[in-house]
Design goal:
By secondary structure, this protein is of the alpha/beta class. Helices cover 44% and strands 19% of the residues. The protein has six helices and five strands, in the order E-H-E-H-E-H-E-H-E-H-H. It has a five-stranded parallel β-sheet, sandwiched between helices. Helix 1 runs parallel beside helix 5, helix 2 crosses helix 3 and helix 5 crosses helix 6. It is globular and about 40 Å long.
């Protein structure tokens, strides 16, 4: 299976939330890679991952982060691929700080944003983007929605 989606999170503690994206991608038959790399603790590795994403065949990136949630913006700054940010509930503000950090990107560096802890929707959005050029993904997404709406 061709790996087409990159899933990145800033900390291992984000894995329970981000695994929901992986589950949806598995259900839809979309190949992905999943990595942990912090925008703050591993800035060089994180930037290199984003810069090399397209050359590895990735077409959409999903980045989950809590607190200041710099990771999705850093990824978007280093790649022209679509980036979907997942704000993760953590700290005293329960993810609202992460939501604001991701949704308030400066002009010129867009990051699509889903709801707090909603990695599932991030994967579905990634699938919708891929479905524009891939009939198999479109059919899988249509079947998923039909099943979900019953």
């Amino acid at each position: 299976m061709q790996i087409r989606v990159g899933v990145i999170m800033g900390s291992k503690s984000d894995a329970p939330v981000m695994e929901k994206a992986n589950t949806i991608l598995d259900e839809l038959g979309i190949g992905y890679e999943s990595v942990v790399s912090s925008a703050h603790r591993n800035p060089e590795r994180t930037a290199a991952w984003a810069r090399g994403a397209a050359s590895r065949g990735l077409q959409v990136l999903i980045a989950g982060a809590g607190l200041s949630a710099a990771l999705p913006g850093v990824i978007a700054a280093h790649s022209l691929l679509p980036v979907i940010g997942v704000p993760i509930a953590s700290g005293s503000l329960g993810g609202v700080d992460a939501l604001y950090s991701i949704v308030q990107m400066p002009p010129g560096i867009p990051v699509a944003t889903v709801g707090i802890d909603n990695a599932r929707n991030a994967a579905l959005l990634a699938a919708a983007i891929l479905s524009l050029q891939d009939g198999d993904v479109r059919a899988a997404l249509e079947a998923y929605r039909e099943q979900w709406n019953q």
